[in-house]
Write a structure and sequence with these properties.
Helix content: 55-70%
InterPro entries: PPR_rpt, PSII_mRNA-binding_protein, TPR-like_helical_dom_sf
Number of helices: 20
Number of strands: 0
CATH superfamily of one domain: Tetratricopeptide repeat domain
CATH class of one domain: Mainly Alpha
Keywords: Repeat
Order of helices and strands: HHHHHHHHHHHHHHHHHHHH
CATH topology of one domain: Serine Threonine Protein Phosphatase 5, Tetratricopeptide repeat
Distance between the termini: 36 Å
Radius of gyration: 29 Å
Oligomer: single chain
Pfam families: PPR_2, PPR_3
Shape: elongated
């Protein structure tokens, strides 16, 4: 069996079959034999063998080596079987041997993989549950873990949840970093809690946490939403003086904020300031600006910007096209909409058409096809 496990091919099935046949023949490997086999499990496809061997040791023998348990946790993580790894860790807590630093480091690394997925996808409830589970198991989340949950809450626009997580982080004695403050500011901005965001910013500066580009950009969006353009000017000058140059994302945040408040003139002014700074606008810039100008009763200017974007080789969405069209017709602007070219397609409608096409094909109804379903962690 050890030779099979170190073989280049995947012979895990052969190992499991031989173990079953040994059971039928009444041949029981010793605890030492089983542990030696666990150590031979080093590849991700070996996880099923490692789990079987671990279960046999637990059921048949009173003692098990902590190093073997740690190795099983490692193999499970390598195979992305993080919840199976957590079960082994829970066995250590309940039945021994007592986990050591290696056990804790391994399981925390697995939690970080799951928290990272929650952060990237904005699955905030998943992140909160993971943090709760870590604390339930006696593991202390660090700033990395708390920040992952904060970012997930921010991405999901769950302002209240972000505030609660930030408070818990501080109460647990973990010092917030610029990533923590940035995520909280973003959540407050999305919840339009501008006054609270200003208090958080002032406190961040007071305790000596230096803002980065992301924090400055978020703050620029907050000040725009608040209509506080005087402080916004000061913020941009402060950035430049500190060597943190505003980017197209920074200006897009300002122009987008102007669009949301219906201030087309302010959006256009910041567009010009952006050009003066030598920053090239992108599709988002033009789309937000066109939307702002269309709502502000400036159809001719919105039309000209759409044409300019096309001349610069940018492909704007159907939303920008519709905004120009509605504004031109609504205000009676004498512009040639045909010059804009065909209306860009709606990606959602395109996807529906593709799905509809597959349903009408014989391949879609192939009875041999078995759909795969994602399993929820909770």
């Amino acid at each position: 069996m050890r030779r099979w496990l170190v073989n280049d091919g995947n012979l895990s099935g052969d190992v499991l079959n031989l173990l079953s046949n040994m059971d039928k023949a009444g041949l029981a490997p010793s605890c030492c034999d089983l542990e030696r086999l666990v150590w031979a499990c080093t590849r991700e496809e070996h996880y099923i063998v490692a789990k079987e061997l671990y279960t046999r040791i637990r059921e048949r023998y009173s003692d098990i080596s902590l190093s073997v348990c740690n190795h099983v946790i490692w193999v499970m993580g390598k195979a992305k079987k993080w919840w199976a790894a957590l079960e082994v860790y829970e066995d250590l807590l309940d039945d021994g041997p007592e986990p050591n630093n290696m056990s804790n480091e391994l399981i925390i690394s697995h939690f970080n993989v799951l928290l990272s997925a929650a952060r990237k996808k904005g699955i905030w409830k998943w992140g909160v549950n993971l943090i709760n589970k870590m604390e339930d198991k006696g593991l202390k989340p660090g700033s990395k873990e708390w920040n992952s949950v904060l970012i997930a809450c921010s991405k999901a626009s769950e302002t209240s949840a972000a505030i609660e997580i930030f408070k818990r982080m501080v109460e647990k004695g973990e010092k917030p970093t610029i990533i923590s403050y940035g995520a909280l500011l973003s959540a407050l901005e999305k919840g339009q809690l501008y006054d609270e965001a200003l208090k958080v910013w002032d406190h961040m500066i007071k305790v000596g946490v230096e803002p980065n580009l992301y924090a400055y950009t978020t703050m620029a969006s907050i000040l725009t939403g608040q209509g506080n353009f005087r402080r916004l000017d000061a913020l941009i000058r402060e950035m430049v003086s500190l060597g943190i140059e505003p980017t197209v994302v920074t200006y897009n945040a300002i122009i987008s904020g102007c669009a949301k408040t219906g201030s087309g003139s302010s959006a256009y002014e910041w567009f010009h300031r952006m050009k003066v700074q030598g920053i090239s606008p992108n599709e988002v810039t033009y789309e937000m600006l066109i939307e702002a100008l269309s709502k502000d009763g400036k159809p001719r200017l919105a039309y000209d910007l759409y044409v300019r974007a096309q001349n610069e080789g940018l492909s704007l969405s159907f939303k920008a096209y519709d905004a120009v069209s509605r504004s031109a017709k609504g205000y009676g602007a004498g512009v040639d909409l045909n010059a804009l070219g065909p209306r860009p397609p709606d990606p959602k409608k395109q996807k529906l058409l593709e799905v509809s096409g597959r349903r009408n094909s014989s391949e879609f109804y192939d009875s041999s096809h078995t759909p795969r379903h994602l399993k929820s962690f909770f």
